[in-house]
Design brief:
160 residues, alpha/beta, Rossmann fold, 5 strands
């Protein structure tokens, strides 16, 4: 188990499927950049009220260095990458493909929401992926249907 920094999109994706506790089950420590916390508190796509009862606030950290990545990433993503570096974290949990590409070009180890669910399934923390993928699709979480179907087939589940 490892230390991770979690970006906004992954938190929302986990909240939508009521699986925020996977952060504690899969990792020793997880942290959230203050900018991500601010984004979550402004998010209107779904009601995060019940999910935010899960203790995220105690995991919020401020970055201590200048945010030099704002020119190439949004506020939350850029602070997440910087916090990853400052904490010497093992992984950044991030979904946005552009931000992830930039982070990976900076030698940041990234895992997305789909990878997180795969890890949870491999550790028998969840038993099926399709029900979570379906909720994501119904809630406008933007994942490739082809990718989701390939994963379902790989794990012996019936594709969409």
């Amino acid at each position: 188990m490892k230390k991770v920094v979690v970006d906004t999109g992954v938190i929302i994706s986990l909240a939508v499927i009521n699986q925020l506790e996977l952060l504690e089950k899969l990792f020793d420590e997880f942290y959230i950049a203050n900018a991500v916390w601010e984004e979550l508190n402004k998010y209107e796509g779904i009601s995060l009220a019940n999910s935010l009862n899960f203790d995220l606030k105690s995991h919020v950290r401020n970055i201590t260095s200048l945010n030099h990545l704002l020119v190439v990433m949004d506020y939350g993503e850029s602070e997440s990458v910087i916090l990853f570096e400052e904490l010497n974290a093992d992984f950044l949990l991030i979904d946005d493909s552009k931000a992830r590409s930039i982070a990976e070009s900076l030698n940041v180890n990234c895992i997305g929401s789909i990878g997180l669910l795969i890890k949870a399934k491999e550790k028998a923390l969840i038993y099926e992926l399709k029900k979570y993928f379906k909720i994501w699709l119904e809630n406008n979480r933007y994942f490739s249907l082809k990718l989701l179907n390939d994963i379902l087939i790989h794990f012996g589940e019936i594709p969409f």
